[in-house]
Specification:
The chain is of the alpha+beta class and 350 residues long. The chain has 10 helices and 12 strands.
Length: 350
């Protein structure tokens, strides 16, 4: 399994996007986002996406260098068409427009339709925290990616529809970011590329029976992901359903529907920024978030548990480790990246 430093992998990923005629500044945004996901331990949203994005660019599904087009705008709201531009580029453009609105009014909401895959939602909460703001974010798969079956069902009806909520503290923010299925589709894809089975509880086959073979998501007869929640999976499915409704309905994009191809292409998104300084006050907010974070960490632990972790801690621990030890890229993923590099005549990192 090849291993690379973050700067090496970022430079290489950027060169691949530039070779696919993505403007250099945009290529840098996407490359940094993907490698940051790898650093944080979310390989499902890391450089494994490079061949996928470049394939979409070649086919014309994704458009390099397109603008973010406002469709409707008020002092607190911006609904925008991303014109099938690269998701990370358009998501940051939206946030750049929402931040001054939230600073002025205390709250700002924005949506994206026709947007490429935006990547790991948690990075946008981390961005908001640097602006001393809280963030709610959610995406659906713009009508496609229907790989999650309702409890008791055997066919997918909604996509994995992740949700992210982040709150700043005086130190690192507390950020929760998870799909409403038992696992993100990208995590199944990662297992598929590694040729390894999935953990129990992620998948069902085409008959509805539990399954661990990741190939069931990509080959006929197709299986599906299950909602998170185990015996209470109706909670995960219910949350995913509402997020699908909001993302598709508010953005002017699409909710999950059978008229669109199954494979996911991109996202419809909802971002809501909250400025604590215009609510209970920034000082009060940080006092409370710091206090509760410390109180939770102080909880006595059961045998074998060294410490209580908060949402966001695993990513920080992974990043600290991989910045020292490097980022491993599974052989199956690297084969696809190598193939893309050869086709674009881009030299592999030494």
């Amino acid at each position: 399994m090849p291993t690379f430093t973050a700067p090496t992998l970022t430079t290489f990923a950027q060169s691949l996007f530039e070779a696919a005629r993505v403007p250099a500044s945009d290529a840098g945004v996407v490359a940094r986002s993907l490698v940051e996901a790898n650093l944080c331990g979310h390989d499902s949203h890391g450089v494994m996406r490079v061949p996928q994005y470049i394939d979409f660019l070649r086919k014309g599904t994704y458009k390099p260098g397109v603008p973010l087009t406002p469709m409707s705008e008020t002092p607190a709201v911006l609904a925008a068409d991303a014109n099938w531009g690269l998701g990370q580029v358009q998501a940051y453009r939206l946030l750049d427009k929402l931040v001054p609105k939230a600073k002025m009014l205390g709250v700002a909401a924005g949506t994206l339709r026709n947007c490429g895959h935006v990547g790991r939602l948690g990075e946008y909460a981390e961005f908001a925290a640097k602006e001393k703001m809280a963030l709610f974010a959610a995406v659906n798969s713009h009508g496609s990616g229907r790989r999650v079956a309702p409890p008791g069902g055997i066919e997918g009806r909604i996509s994995t529809n992740p949700i992210c909520i982040g709150a700043p503290t005086s130190g690192d923010p507390v950020v929760i970011d998870f799909g409403t299925s038992a696992a993100a589709e990208g995590k199944v894809r990662a297992q598929f590329q590694k040729k390894q089975p999935c953990p129990d509880g992620w998948l069902i086959d085409h008959t509805g029976a539990p399954c661990t073979d990741p190939a069931v998501l990509y080959n006929e007869p197709r299986g599906n992901l299950v909602p998170f929640g185990g015996s209470q999976a109706y909670k995960g499915f219910g949350l995913g359903l509402l997020l699908d409704l909001l993302c598709g309905g508010l953005s002017g994009g699409s909710c999950s529907n059978p008229s669109l191809p199954l494979p996911g292409i991109g996202n419809a998104a909802v971002f809501i920024l909250l400025n604590p300084s215009l609510f209970g006050g920034a000082e009060h907010f940080l006092k409370e978030t710091d206090g509760l974070s410390a109180y939770v960490r102080s909880c006595p632990t059961t045998a074998g548990i060294a410490a209580i972790t908060l949402p966001g801690d695993p990513e920080l621990l992974s990043k600290a480790c991989r910045l020292v030890e490097g980022i491993p890229v599974p052989d199956g993923t690297w084969e696809l990246i190598e193939k893309t590099a050869r086709e674009l005549n881009v030299a592999l990192p030494g």
